[in-house]
Amino acid sequence: MPTVVLMDSSLSMTRPVSQEGSEEFQRKNLAVHGLTMLFEHMATNYKLEFTSLVAFSSLWELMVPFTRDYNTLQEALSNLEDYDKTCLESALHGVSNIVQQEWGSTCPCQVVLVTDGALGIGRGSLRHSLHTLKQRVEDKKFPLPFPFPAKMFIMCIANVEELQSTDAMDNLEQLIGLNGGEGQIFTMEGPLCLKSVQSMFGKLIDQAYTPFYAVLHCGNLASDVQVFPRPEPVLVDEEVDPIPKAVQTEVDEVGAGTTEDAEEEPSANQMAGKSPNFCVLLHGSLKVEGMVALVQLGPEWYGMLYSQADSKKKSNLMMSLFEPGPEPLPWLGKISQLGPISDAAENPYGEDDSKSPFPLQPKNKRSYAQNVTVWIKANGLQTDVQKILRNARKLPEKTQTFYKELNRLRKAALAFGFWELLKGVAELLERECTLLPDSAHPDAAFQLSHAAQQLKLASTGDSQYSAFNHNITPLHTDFSGGGAGDRM
Amino acid sequence: MKVTSSRFSHKTAFVVDHCPYMAESSRQMVECDMLTKSRGQGVIPLAPVSKSLWTCAVECSMEYCRILYDVYPTRKLVRSYVHYIVSDSEFHSLNSWRQEDQSTQELMAALASVGPPNPREDPECCSVLHGLVAAVESLCAITQYQHEARRTLMDVADRVANRGRIICLTNAKSDTHVRMLEDCVSETIQEQNKLAAGSDRLMPIQRCELVLVHIYPQGDDTLVSDRSRKELSSVLSSEVHSVRAGRHLASKLNILVQQHFDLASTTITNIPMKEEQHANTSANYDVELLHHRDAHLEFIKSAQPCFLCTGDLHMAGSTSRDSGLKETVTLKWCTPRTNNVELHYCTGAYRISPVDVNSRPSSCLTNFLLNGRSVLLEQPRKSGSKVISHMLSSHGGEIFLHVLNSTRSTLEDPPSISEGCGGRVTDYRITDFGEFMRENRLTPFSEGVLDASGRTSSERAKAQLERHTRYWPMIISQTTIFNMQAVVPLANLIVKESLSEEDVLTCQKTVFNLVDMERKNDPLPISTVGSRGKGPKRDEQYRIMWNELETLVKAHVGSSERHQRVLECISACRSKPPEEEERKKRGRKREDKEDKAEKNGKDADEKAWPDSERLKGPQEREKEEQTESEMIKDSPDSPEPLNKKPRLMSEEIQPPQKSKGPVSLLTMWTNRITATSRKHEVFAGRLNSVNNKAELYQHLKEDNGMDLHENGKATR
């Protein structure tokens, strides 16, 4: 996930660190030293991640937009100038905007704030910002929590005692609190020196920038892999109290499916093959066959592997993580119920790959796929009545459709307790019967009066006639030629 | 932790008042005799019909359920259940928490059997209270999901929550009457929780949300006042909505279902549709859809103050025509280009439900999607570029709104896999692995199918993968047998968990066939790519092939006695018995002498070959010389030739053997050269050699083969 380094460039960062004998350091030098260490670590272990550098004092400036080029970041870092006082709120607004503009508001980010803990004075100071938190109007809200998922790491070029001697520590803790508790404050231990700054950034690296190594297994074939971006643990928040789920580092390939539904789900990660062969082989075959491989990341946590090509024809192996759960994609069903095709009586893909057992159809059709009756709006009801009348005038040709529509209306009216409608439609049919032209087929009159009578009976609520699953069937007449409408 | 309204949504109990007063007319008239106007004089139009309060309540609650079942047939892990209860002189439970009961058809059938309220029933005996009490009791009952969750979390069973919501549709007399209903629910919860605490079959209610909807006829003044949510106790909160029957009630329940289940609305605009009357003209229509609100995450967030978002986006706040005051996001239909498969980064897919499900525009859109087409949706902007932010598409009869990533992706510009480890290897068995994947494809089996050893379907799939990969060389030059058509029947069968007699026979036939090939001296597809010369000699090829075949079959020999028999067949038939290596060691001295004698006798000149020639392939040439003499001896019937030994041996043994006797200066020089050359050639090549066969001139292949891999144009 992308990182924004937010570097305090206020004058207080130039305060010298008291050191005996050796050359004199400013806090800024220590900060730069620590960040250099972070950048070097990322250049080696995190080279596919994006990082940007923002410097701030009373104003903020985007020194380096998001890049994978750590030399540029390093260079900008060493050329940082010193400015006036610290004003964190506007800088955080800046971070919020930079991230949203670049990645939108769904991409998780890490913010590394490097400061000496002197958080400004008067207006614009963090203390002032936090004091006025509750008096904000809608368009002057404090930038935290960020609109995107964010972790905030505060690197203090100061030790705890110093921060606790003022309210700086309290304020910083409050800041993390405002970010929903997502983040951590790091302080220096012992004297302020290169060694202690290294140890502090070392802790940050261990906490937030450890590379993710895993082993991809496919039966006895295996390959060591590194995954970018690092898959983060997921909180499963359901009727059961939240349980964090972490990706297991042993990745199991369950089997392969076809790519007819090749879409990237929640998050996609690049897998850089560290140890050779199997990943390259798998990638090559997935690409040629146009298939995806199902991968298990933990108990009831799955994802898929596939070949992805960019516009430059470079392709690599991608892993998409599904939401944890036994049935991440409804059209595949439960993953635990997927078995080898060799267990099936006949190949469900067909001998010539012309078929597929997927997608699975849901047990109940959705409302839009099953011709439901909704009369909330008057025109829904009017349309249904008109359909019946239209078919009534074309009897006996339309006997089938007439009774089908009639029964649909009957069922809905019974369910909604709308007996008045049944009586009304019965009257309409009786009237249609009297309006039949002389040329009309004799069967029409019989069917209309039969239908009207049946509706009337249903509207009495008599259980013999108003059963929901009962259908009105066409009347057997001498004219209907053996009951054309019997087969409903 | 933020408690979202959906945390109450696992259990929803509907209580609909079925007392005589609900039979009263809503006084909203529906004209259903529309055609008579055009039908001349003398036809008396039918009087308009009106729905009763009951009908209004039932159809709006069914609409609530319809949307719910469309959007949450499974709510991630948890299903949302509805328990529908009607109440008059007693309560009537129309369904249960069981999964099979959760469908609108089931509810419709049950409602039909209840029928409308009987206006002549004694109102004194009837009350909605019976239903409310039943609803509280049912919230204590354990659902299928809760049961399973408790079973799987044995040790932490108390972590399984029990929250629920009661939606009561009634016609209340007054605010005091409402208060009485609330008190009753509150007291019942206390009683039931006491009962549940001492029972395994019940769970105490942790939180309950009571939503009272007072329905009154059009034209009347309401006797009950609206009241927003209020905590009545630590367990119960309650809110009151006073709504006129008919369209107002419908939109109220539409808003409620959105609030209760974290839904949001999207209106697809500019849908081109043929006119019913004029088939050659088309007009543009709008269709409103409901779905989980996370599909709007990007909009919700950017609605925060942010001066970089220039307010260019035309969105939320616009009032949708259908649903009164609620907000909808408008997205523009992009007419799909034919057969243009565009893959977008999709960050989420959400089920949808049309607001106006059986209107013509809605059904046109949904049918279009159900037939397998997809529609990209564009954010309407006043100016600037076109931003595609969503896509509608169906999977297995369900329509999903897909959220597409419209900003920069952190996955951009990924490195090519060929830049990583193993990326420079060019002779991967891509086609074979493709075949392997097709054989290991998955298919759904019915729930609870376990095999003899109690494995689930997916466990069987993994077991099959394990078997199929016990011996699976990844590159072509590492294998002989998988390049041979003749081995296919055996290779396909031996990986099976169990073999039939017929399978064993097929395997044996394969072995006999190979013996036959060897007798006829058929060439083997041993890879000579990148190496000059002819590669190993014929008999050596067969030795390699038999060894490899044995390795494959040995990997499966533990599966069954029949697998064992296949191995025995190979051991018996192959040109070299597996004990070869052992015997070799024992007979090393003897063979060395033989070897020396042969060499000295046959070709004294050999040692005099120029060094350059020697470096190219001394072993190959040496073998070639031997071929003819060995050919006849090598048939299965003939006695084991004495001088047959792996190349490796001869190489290692040569120097000491040669240093034993008196040697010429030339021999010494040659030995020295060979020893030096081994430091390079043998060291590098042998490291990667398989079955003693080193692959030479790998760089040649690399240059030729890279393209093959990069473009994935491996030929089948």
From TrEMBL, chain A:
It holds the Pfam family IntS14_b-barrel. One of its GO terms (biological process) is snRNA 3'-end processing. InterPro entries: INTS14, IntS14_b-barrel, IntS14_C, VWF_A, vWFA_dom_sf. Keywords: Magnesium, Metal-binding, Nucleus. Residues 252-271, 342-363 are annotated as: Disordered. One of its GO terms (molecular function) is metal ion binding. Component of the Integrator complex, composed of core subunits INTS1, INTS2, INTS3, INTS4, INTS5, INTS6, INTS7, INTS8, INTS9/RC74, INTS10, INTS11/CPSF3L, INTS12, INTS13, INTS14 and INTS15. The core complex associates with protein phosphatase 2A subunits PPP2CA and PPP2R1A, to form the Integrator-PP2A (INTAC) complex. INTS14 is part of the tail subcomplex, composed of INTS10, INTS13, INTS14 and INTS15. This is Integrator complex subunit 14. It comes from Denticeps clupeoides.
TrEMBL record, chain B:
It is found in: Cytoplasm; Nucleus. The keyword rRNA-binding does not apply. Residues 576-636 have a biased composition (Basic and acidic residues). Residues 576-662 are annotated as: Disordered. One of its GO terms (biological process) is regulation of mitotic cell cycle. Keywords: Cell cycle, Cell division, Cytoplasm, Mitosis, Nucleus. Belongs to the Integrator subunit 13 family. This is Integrator complex subunit 13. The gene is INTS13.
